[in-house]
Automatic annotation (TrEMBL):
Residues 35-156 form the Activator of Hsp90 ATPase homologue 1/2-like C-terminal domain. Belongs to the AHA1 family. Gene3D superfamilies: 3.30.530.20. It holds the Pfam family AHSA1. SUPFAM superfamilies: Bet v1-like. It comes from Tamaricihabitans halophyticus. This is Uncharacterized protein YndB with AHSA1/START domain.
C-alpha cells in the first residue's frame, strides 16, 4: 500500500483558470515525474495499443485534425500534436456533450529532466458552467486522472496494466481514491473555494469513488 500512496504523493495538484472556445473554464492540473525517457512516455500516451493498456482502448483517426473515442465513451478531436512534447485534445463525454463543443480540453506536456526521466504535466480545462462542478468540484475529474496516472506509472515501470475496476474494490484502491478526493479538496481550497462548498464537494467525490463509507478506512500513512 505504501508504494501506491507514494505514487499519489508524487503528483502536485493545482486548480487554476483558463479560457476555452466556449468561455471561462477551471483547470485540474497534475504535475509529476516519471522515471522513463520522454520518448517512452510520449509513445505510451500516443500509441493506441500502449494507450489501451493504462488508459482505455481507443479508436479513431489518431492524427492532428482527426477524432478519437475511448472505450468508456470519452471522445474528441486531436487539436495539437508536437512529438514528443505536447498533445492537446478536446475531451467530451456522452452524446449530449457534442451539443456544447469547446467546453473541455486536455493537454499533456512532457519535458526531459537531467536524470533521464520525464517531467509530466496534464491540464484538463472544463467550462465553468459544466454540471458536475457544483456537486463534485475538481475531484469530478481529478480523482479519475489520479487513478490513470497511477496506472501509467505501473505500466511504464513493468508493462503491466492496472485493472481499474478491480483496484477500486480493494482496500488500497479505496484509500487511494479517498486521499485523492481530499487532495483535490485542498487544491480547491487553495484556489479560493468556499470552505463549506469545498468540504461538501470532497465528501460527494469520496462517496462516488468509495461507496460504502468508512467501513474499511485505514490509518493515514498505513
Amino acid at each position: 500500500m505504501k508504494d501506491v500512496m507514494d505514487e499519489l504523493a508524487a503528483a502536485r495538484r493545482v486548480m487554476g483558470a483558463a479560457t476555452l472556445p466556449a468561455g471561462d473554464a477551471y483547470t485540474m492540473e497534475l504535475r509529476r515525474r516519471y522515471n522513463a525517457p520522454v520518448e517512452d512516455v510520449w509513445n505510451a500516451i500516443t500509441d493506441p495499443v500502449r494507450l489501451g493498456r493504462w488508459l482505455k482502448p481507443v479508436t479513431g483517426d489518431l492524427r492532428p485534425g482527426g477524432s478519437f473515442e475511448l472505450d468508456g465513451g470519452e471522445h474528441g478531436e486531436i487539436l495539437r500534436c508536437d512529438p514528443p512534447r505536447r498533445l492537446r485534445v478536446s475531451w467530451l463525454f456522452g452524446p449530449e456533450a457534442d451539443e456544447w463543443p469547446g467546453t473541455s480540453e486536455v493537454e499533456v506536456r512532457l519535458s526531459p529532466d537531467p536524470a533521464g526521466g520525464t517531467e509530466f504535466e496534464l491540464v484538463h480545462a472544463a467550462a465553468v458552467g459544466e454540471p458536475m462542478f457544483p456537486t463534485y468540484g475538481p475531484g469530478a475529474g481529478g480523482v479519475g486522472w489520479d487513478l490513470h496516472l497511477l496506472a501509467l506509472a505501473q505500466f511504464l515501470a513493468d508493462g503491466a496494466p492496472l485493472d481499474h475496476d478491480e483496484f477500486r474494490t480493494l482496500p488500497e484502491g479505496r484509500e487511494f481514491a479517498r486521499r485523492s478526493a481530499a487532495a483535490w479538496g485542498e487544491a480547491h481550497l487553495a484556489a479560493g473555494g468556499d470552505p463549506d462548498q469545498v468540504a461538501a464537494a470532497a465528501e460527494a467525490t469520496t462517496a462516488f469513488y468509495v461507496p460504502g463509507g468508512d467501513r474499511d478506512q485505514h490509518t493515514p500513512g498505513s
